[in-house]
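In the design runs reported in the main text, the only information available to the sequence generator was the tokenized backbone. The following block is the verbatim input for one such run; it is reproduced so that readers can re-run the procedure and compare outputs position by position.
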């Protein structure tokens, strides 16, 4: 079983290092286990070079056959775990940084009280990934960006973007009355994890508008974008959650508020059609009970 687990991890990640990180073992240990498995079966399961690892045809067939068997084993172990009387285990969650902040503020305090034996491992990153192949139990994204083969549960509602700028900047450059006025302003651009520049989105009276803006400064972090607006660099287009503290203190003001897009839901999602482990179920229960504005 250990050799099969090593093979599955390496074949899935296409990397001995990432598989070793997942299993908590040394890459050399995994390499030795797979060589022993190949010797016992009499076939090569992995093609190895100095830069890459990939399954052979036999390896792909074995991987496809093992996956449903492992799911059945997980379900059997989860059923037995229910007799323990307390929930334990690890939940790995992938989330953008702002969504991870919601989890830290709302979900984790309740998890520590209600399910102290559950470890919540949150990886904060903005890039869209396949949570299953990356080894996560759940992910967090805007509800309309979640794949259809996933089950979603709301984490927070009223998530919206807004334009903000400092009073000093607005006194100097004027207050934009329409999105088109932004073409005469200095704006803080947003570099997405994909490398593309985010196009600012507006909506009014049912009409949607998407536009590129002049951005002499480009940043890839919402907090830094708010900080740039506070310092008078220009107009920033950021999540309201990121700008909340600066708005409350008067360091920035919202502009073009009547052009703001409708608020969206942020949701936790997980694979459909698979047994939900007790630790993940505990996490989802707390998410449901703490879903916030």
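Verbatim output:
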């Amino acid at each position: 079983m250990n050799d099969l687990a090593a093979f599955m991890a390496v074949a899935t990640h296409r990397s001995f290092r990432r598989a070793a990180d997942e299993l908590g073992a040394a890459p050399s240990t995994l390499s030795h286990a797979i060589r022993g498995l190949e010797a016992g079966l009499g076939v090569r399961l992995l093609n190895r070079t100095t830069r890459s690892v990939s399954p052979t045809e036999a390896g792909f067939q074995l991987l496809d056959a093992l996956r449903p068997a492992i799911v059945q084993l997980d379900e059997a172990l989860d059923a037995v775990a229910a007799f323990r009387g307390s929930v334990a285990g690890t939940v790995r969650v992938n989330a953008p940084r702002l969504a991870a902040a919601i989890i830290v503020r709302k979900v984790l305090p309740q998890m520590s009280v209600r399910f102290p034996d559950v470890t919540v491992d949150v990886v904060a990153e903005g890039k869209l990934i396949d949570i299953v192949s990356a080894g996560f139990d759940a992910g967090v994204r805007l509800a309309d960006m979640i794949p259809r083969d996933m089950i979603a549960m709301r984490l927070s509602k009223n998530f919206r973007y807004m334009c903000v700028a400092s009073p000093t900047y607005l006194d100097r450059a004027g207050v934009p009355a329409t999105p088109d006025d932004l073409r005469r302003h200095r704006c803080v651009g947003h570099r997405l994890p994909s490398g593309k520049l985010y196009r600012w989105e507006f909506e009014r009276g049912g009409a949607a508008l998407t536009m590129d803006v002049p951005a002499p400064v480009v940043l890839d972090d919402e907090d830094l974008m708010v900080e740039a607006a506070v310092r008078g660099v220009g107009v920033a287009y950021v999540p309201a959650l990121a700008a909340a503290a600066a708005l409350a203190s008067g360091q920035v003001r919202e502009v073009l508020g009547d052009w703001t897009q409708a608020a969206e839901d942020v949701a936790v999602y997980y694979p459909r059609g698979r047994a939900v482990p007790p630790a993940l179920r505990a996490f989802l229960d707390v998410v449901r009970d703490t879903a916030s504005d």
